[in-house]
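hi got a favour to ask and not much time before my train. below you get a single protein, a line of residues and a line of whole numbers that encode the local backbone shape. could you go over both lines and see whether the tokens make sense for that sequence. a few lines back from you is plenty, here it is:
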Amino acid sequence: MILKDLAEWINAATSRGAVPVITGRNGDMDTVGSAIALAASGKNMLACGLHLSRVSKKICEDLSAPFKKIGEKPNWPKPLGGIIIVDAASEGQTGIDIPRDVPICVIDHHDTSDWKFKPNDLEIRTNARSTTQIVFNYLDENSKDVLTNEVRKLLLAGLITDTGRFKHADESALRCAADIMSGADFDYQTFIERIQSENITASDRGAIVKALSRCEMKDCGPWNLVSTYAGIHEGKIATILMQTGADVSFVSRFRNGETRITARAPRSSTKSGLHLGEIMQKLSVQLGGEGGGHDGAAGWSGKQDRISAESAFINILSQIRRDDDES
């Protein structure tokens, strides 16, 4: 039913005018792959956003995928039939000022949401492990001809990266990957190698090592936390810190007047009652800014200084009861 609602919303919006498909401002492969694949399915649609991550930029260049970088206050085409936002739990997570007088459609899989909807808006939110799963199911049902090798690669790349190379996948995500490949005509292993290949400069390696040298470990109530601060690659560093066996890893960054927090938690922690997305959402209530995400991977960004934001996170974490009953 929700895919039928989405098809009807898109048909109505594209008949009225242009429909930008906006990505989350982090520009990761899930949001970018979802936007480009969905935009390929209809007239008057174009994928756009503030930023492309390194992986997204590489894959888009490989596939000559159409994506337009826009500013925070873009000159929107006229007339606007509607705006679609993919893989963003709030307007702030797009980094773009969205017109209030235009219908919006939000397609997302995050556990938390701060969107405020008007009567003609539509929200498509499921418990999928990636937004590309939702988009693939929509295309498979409504626009099979759009599912070229290039589109399948974009969707598969989003699914692979957002599940941590399937580490966080469930049965539905694995089945979706198999369905994407069942109609594809490219070598899976070669494509995986391309996604995983990364050119980290000597400067980046130095920054990562420096961030690791600043690590601190502390007990926050029933949870063990390993934290540091970094200038780049916060997600990568947070993932590395998970290898210490901590219950939570935490990396903060301050740049251009904004603090950003990235946190990760293993499955053992989320099964014991931890939900990082909910912590980040509480953080946004306390400090302002934007926060949310999944149980085991989440983030927050705002104007608060880095130390205050870290202290607030630790305070919230310390108050969460641990339930180690895994029966």
